[in-house]
Amino acid sequence: MSQNEITNNGWDLIAAASQKALNEQLAKIHPVTLKKEIEMELLGSKEKVNVNLVFNGPELRVRDGSGRQVDVLLPVQGTVKVDGGMKANIVIPKDEKVTVTTELMQIENKLVPHPDEKQTNYDLMIDFKSEAAIVDMRLNISAPDLAFLIETMKILIQRELHGGKEYKVASFALSNEVAKEYNSLIPHTADFSFVQDVKDPDRSNLLVLMQSVSEGKPDGGILFKKPLLASNQDFLVLASNKLFLEHFVAPPLIENLKKKAKDSNSVPKTMSIQQVGGPGSELYQLYNKSHINLNVDHEPWIETVTAEIDTTMKALYFNLLVKVNATFLNIHGSAWDKSWQQFQVNQAQQQITLTQIKEEKGKETTMEWWKWLLACLDWIVLLVAGIIYAVVENKITDLGGTFVQTAPLVVQWPNQKYVSLKGMSTPSHVVLDLDVHFS
Predict the structure, then answer these.
(1) Using CA atoms, how far apart are residues 158 and 293, in angstroms rounded to an integer?
(2) Fewest Cβ atoms closer than 10 Å to its Cβ: which of 64, 70, 73, 240?
(3) Largest CA distance in the chain
(4) How far apart are CA 430 and CA 238, in angstroms?
(5) Which of the 8 DSSP states describes residue 166?
């Protein structure tokens, strides 16, 4: 499998779709037939223009670089006639296209109210109505006729196509409340960006950018240097490194530590999260701010406990360092356990496991107690079980589902029927590789 180019620009959640996959769904839109007379002002006088046109499903063509603008190609055929002061009879043959350079607009879907009054459904629609939209067309006709045709097309597209709900490219629900503690998978702010794939334009991306636990829009903005989708992916959902560690690794980590801590109530205050990797880094680490005394013989303590994503191993990395200093028994030393875990997905059964791909254990003592000490902590076994429970079994408040059930559905794509999970990886952030099935 080719690798994802992973960055999140500070967004908590990102849903991505390829240009090719979206165009396959937009092509299913029923043709729109316009057979009518419209009034236009041409060369200072009002003229009646008779149009008999058929517009087929639009095709997105992502522009150079990254941003909100996109070219929308509308296949059109038919005739445009004027029988007045100006005379014209323009025939548009099959397979011709009019290009509309525009953006997407986010509008409330009032026809489909969200079942939870705390949330509202929104659609991202192709904005044909925008006054800033640029309409262009190439046809082998005279320059005056072409200019007239382009102006006619702009009027028709703005008047007739702007409100069509069928020109939807994505849907999502946003929280209506300014919560004291945001829910990890319920976005409250959304934006979007297109990112061109220079080598293969069909692989260009639409990114739906969302904040769920972070306030406001991030400093990183909406511009991305490269597409997020790998060459063999059409859809993914990205959960940020920080979001995943704080909301899906920290809770089981803390519960695991509390079971062995002498003062279990102090553990949550002891654990914290910090940015690692220097200024501008998108990587974070869970760590203990102070020692955690253990409620076992000889009064050992946890000197260091960390959890993070190892970008080299593309795995969750856990590090435990335990020390003891029982002078009266002449027991002095330390022991450590380092473990790298990767998510594995059984596609047929839609089951997720964490598989250890590497482990390092060691000690700085001549005695054998260290093996017993690490074993009595049930360290990795309990932690892995806790994380699996957090992402697979634990239903999140207000969502009615687990992480792996709800994260793939933060955005709905056109004609989406159901979604299955193809893979779950940790290149730096957490990436859900999705197989979206359509009606």
Answers:
(1) 69
(2) 64
(3) 110
(4) 6
(5) G
Contacts (Cβ under 8 Å, ≥6 apart) of 424 = 343, 345, 352, 404, 430, 431, 432, 433
Distance from C-alpha of 294 to C-alpha of 272, rounded to nearest angstrom? 19
- CA distance linking residue 334 with residue 291, whole number of Å: 13
Tokens of 146: 């072409």
The residue type found at 14 is I
Q: Give CA–CA dist 5/20, Å, rounded.
A: 18
Strands (DSSP E) contained in 200-270 are 205-211, 235-239
Cα distances (angstroms) measured from residue 3 to each of 201, 206, 324, 426: 18, 18, 43, 11
**Of 244, 207, 243, nearest to 226 (Cα)?**
207
Count CB-CB contacts under 10 A for residue 149: 19
H helix runs in 231-361, sequence order = 241-244, 250-258, 267-270
Which amino acid, residue 85? G
Question: Phi/psi of residue 104, each to 5°?
Answer: -100, 150
d(CA 327, CA 392): 45
Q: What is the DSSP letter of 262?
A: S
Q: H helices then E strands: how many in the chain?
A: 8, 23
Instruction: Look at residues 337, 312, 343 and name the one whose alpha carbon lies nearest to residue 407.
Output: 343
Contacts of 330 (CB under 8 A, 6+ apart): none
- The residue among 425, 438, 436, 439 whose CA lies nearest residue 2 is 425
Q: pLDDT (tens digit, 9 = 90+) per residue, 98-128?
A: 999 999 999 999 888 888 888 999 999 999 9
Assess contact for 166 and 181: CB atoms under 8 A: no
Range ranked top by mean pLDDT from 106-115, 182-191, 381-390, 414-423: 414-423
Question: Helix, strand, coil shares of the chain as percentages rounded to 5?
Answer: 20, 45, 35
pTM given for the model:
0.94
pLDDT in tens, 48-96: 999 999 999 999 999 999 999 999 999 999 999 998 777 889 999 999 9
For residue 272, give both structure tokens: 């914290």
